[in-house]
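Re: that backbone. Tokens:
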């Protein structure tokens, strides 16, 4: 039994909409992560390194090649923030 051609138009529209929304969502996630793929399955070590990178560079995905940390890094420790709230 043949498929009527009228059914192909909504099928094409649905396929294009799913493809467009998936492509835009992928572009959004990539742009939020500074052009790098999203991170999955993060453990405590990964989160600690992301926090350190954020304190060093100002972004969670950025890394610094400097051998010495900036002066502001010594006062932006998470431990000093926790001790102030206790």
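Recovered sequence:
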């Amino acid at each position: 039994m043949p498929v009527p051609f009228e059914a192909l138009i909504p099928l094409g529209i649905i396929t294009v909409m799913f493809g467009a929304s998936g492509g835009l969502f992928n572009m959004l996630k990539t742009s939020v992560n500074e052009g790098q793929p999203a991170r999955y399955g993060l453990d405590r070590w990964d989160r600690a390194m992301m926090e350190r990178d954020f304190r060093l560079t100002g972004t969670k995905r950025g890394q610094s090649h400097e051998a010495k940390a900036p002066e502001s890094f010594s006062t932006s420790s998470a431990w000093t923030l926790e001790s102030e709230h206790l």
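Residues 5-85 form one domain. Residues 20 and 36 are 20 Å apart (CA to CA).
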